[in-house]
Specification:
By secondary structure, the chain is an all-alpha fold. About 80% of the residues lie in helices and about 0% in strands. It contains 17 helices and no strands.
Length: about 350
């Protein structure tokens, strides 16, 4: 007696083959086979998850090499050394933004929310504005950018720790925490706006230069510190990758499966806060970079496993910055700001997500 599963499989295979043969005469199928873009999409759909991750990794490496060696002129020691430090900065910021957003989506169960909702970007703007207003634009932090970076990062971390220590531990209501983060973000933006209106024109120009994301001339000591922090956090995140899969099921199911929901969410909020503080204090605010990387990681992989999503989001964050910087330097002659390109693409995708919210 033939096995029913084998018969069913043979029948489906035979039917699929016959359908494929019949489709050769179908004008729609012929259009797909002759359209390179659609053919590329079909090829991507046939790749498994490791291969998809490998393709994005290879693409990121290609643009990293282009960024390092394209139009390299003058002294190679100086130019290549400068580009290497810029590349390390791009890796830190891209990985931090992508990973932080994926983890934030995991605990909020909402793919539209981003860590910027917690008020980080507005707080960074307020800190920079207040420092220029109180100390003046000529204050150089005793010729130490490390001291300045440490102060800004600790201020932002202190705000987040105070926020969820005072609210989350009492009510365990994540949505209330997010709402308070939004309110604080609006408050910080309003205060920064008020202070900027009373600044002198020269100091306002200096402030505007600090508020745009910048990758040129990175401080090597800052990059080393941020890279060390990122490596430590990466080890912690990778060790808990399966825990994130359970948390993505929802608080009720996670608790049923034996996960300490409160402790796990506190850990993720702390890690996300440090990652966002690192990237924001290092180069400035990039609101939609993490959202762009995380959203495309979901769409390209079509999986909920964090062992694939986290590396993909990190790679895409680096890839977007590399592509944007290469285009800005070599095609546009630095006639623009990288922030504008990233925010335009990320903002457009954010609006698309809002319009399609019921289906994503």
């Amino acid at each position: 007696m033939a096995h029913p599963t084998s018969d069913a499989h043979y029948s489906q295979t035979e039917t699929g083959s016959a359908r494929g043969l019949a489709d050769h005469g179908n004008p729609k199928t012929s259009a797909v086979l002759t359209n390179p873009f659609r053919l590329t999409l079909l090829g991507w759909a046939n790749l498994n998850t490791p291969w998809r991750l490998g393709v994005i990794s290879a693409l990121t490496c290609v643009f990293a090499i282009l960024f390092l060696f394209l139009n390299l002129q003058g002294s190679w020691n100086y130019a290549l050394n400068r580009r290497v430090w810029m590349l390390l900065t791009i890796v830190i910021v891209g990985c931090s933004a992508g990973v932080a957003t994926v983890l934030f989506h995991t605990i909020t169960h909402n793919r539209i929310l981003t860590p910027a909702v917690m008020g980080f970007e507005s707080l960074y703007v307020l800190i920079q504005t207040a420092l220029v207003f109180a100390l003046g634009s000529d204050f150089n932090w005793f010729d130490s950018r490390v001291l300045r970076f440490t102060a800004e990062a600790l201020m932002m971390l202190g705000f987040v720790m105070l926020l969820y220590r005072g609210l989350f531990h009492r009510s365990q209501d994540l949505h209330r925490l997010l709402l308070v983060g939004i309110v604080f973000g609006v408050l910080f933006a309003s205060l920064a706006n008020l202070i900027q209106r009373i600044l002198e024109p020269a100091e306002f120009d200096v402030l505007q230069g600090r508020l745009f994301a910048r990758l040129t001339l990175p401080d090597s000591s800052l990059v080393v510190i941020c890279l060390a922090l990122l490596l430590v956090l990466s080890v912690i995140i990778w060790r808990h990758r399966y825990l994130f899969d359970v948390l993505a099921l929802g608080p009720t199911r996670a608790t049923t499966l034996g996960v300490n929901q409160r402790r796990a969410v506190n850990l993720i909020l702390l890690v996300v806060s440090i990652l966002v503080a690192i990237s924001t204090a290092l180069i400035g605010p990039l609101t939609f970079l993490g959202f762009l990387a995380a959203t495309l990681a979901y769409q390209l992989l079509q999986t909920h496993k964090h062992r694939w999503l986290l590396p993909m989001a990190a790679l895409l964050g680096c890839l977007f910055l590399l592509v944007g910087q290469v285009v800005l330097e070599h095609l546009m002659g630095m006639a623009g700001v990288l922030t504008v390109v990233i925010e335009f693409l990320g903002g457009s995708l954010f609006l698309l997500m809002l319009l399609r919210k019921g289906r994503l």
